[in-house]
Amino acid sequence: MNLLKARLVHIIVVYAVFITIVVPSCVFAEKEDAYKQLDILSKAISIIENNYVEDVDLKELVYGAIQGMLTELDPHSSFLTPKVYKEFKIETKGEFGGLGITISIRDSLLTIIAPIEDTPASRAGLKAGDIIVKINDTATSGLTLDEAVKMMRGKPGTKVRLTIFREGENKPFEVELEREIIKIKSVKSDVYNDTAYIKLTQFQQGSANEIIDALKDIQKNNDINGIILDMRNNPGGLLNEAIRVASIFLQNGKTVVFTKDRNKTEQHFKTEKVSYKELDKPMVVLVNNGSASASEIVAGALKDHRRALVVGTKTFGKASVQTLIPMPDESAIKLTTALYYTPSGTSIQSVGIDPNVYIPSGKIVVDNTSGFLTERSLSRHIIGSSEKLEGIEKKKDSIDEDLYNDLQLSVALQILEGFIEHGAKAEKEGK
To answer: Do 93 and 205 meet the contact criterion of CB atoms below 8 Å apart?
Structure first.
């Protein structure tokens, strides 16, 4: 028995030695290659430090190298110096100094995702898709997002000059904006034709509760038959608020969005219990190219679960997960670590959400794959909408000015009206 044990131990030891000798050889090769590359970086820094025409700060060289590496990855990964990281950690409470625009980098160009309503940017007429060519006299080419944001923020009352390129314009133009404290009211509400209209401008702390309060207040004095959730020019915000907003309109336990990292590991975010739910009334979600991030997540979830019809234009396509990784010297790396996907598995990043009913410049194109309505009934609604649009012009004096000037909103209302009429008729006929 002891001899058997001894031989067994001998076999295990030999096997272990074999593993340590054979398997790590490729690992050592990879590490050796990595060390060679790091050696090149170290030598480059040393050459610059010892031979550049002026004295250089070693820390600045290292910071620049890190920033260069991250910039090569994607527009949303970046390096935060200790000072910038300290500013970044200040929590957003719905009030901040600046111009009132959300920006991103698209095709290497600093692009406006959306201006925030009733801010210096919106009052100056800036639009989603505008490209910021210069900030004061500094060209934006090569700037990181964090650098651009820092340049545009400043003391309230001070001014900043932006040079803007807009598609369709012959040449860039300048706008001068005065910085101010940006106070954001994330939810506005109204009632149109027995339809609850909820305008969500940004996902900030408490946005879901504001929507719940608005729906409750509206239904106290109105017999509501449908809901419009307007997320046009909504640049996004807090993910947990996006989950809670979707939870108002979807049953508990439904996937709102999921992430997928480099190892294909998925993390699903599901609807949760909220104090009020609206699960039955027909619903339309309005989006455009200024709808990004959290607004795309909510629109995608409501579309995929066939809870709402999405109307407008394709959204911006910004849905990646950035993880803040603190460094030993109180700097930090903001690194893209995963991408967001709608419940059906559609990637949002760089793609955006396609609406069911696409309305650019008054033309209506219908996507009949939504399953929200039957192909026949959906087509009937759109045909009816086209006919009723003529009636809107005839009745201009008797309707809200915003509705008259807002084709997307008017079509959304008419789709809901047609759906409600269709549902009532089907119920009466026992279908």
So the answer is: yes
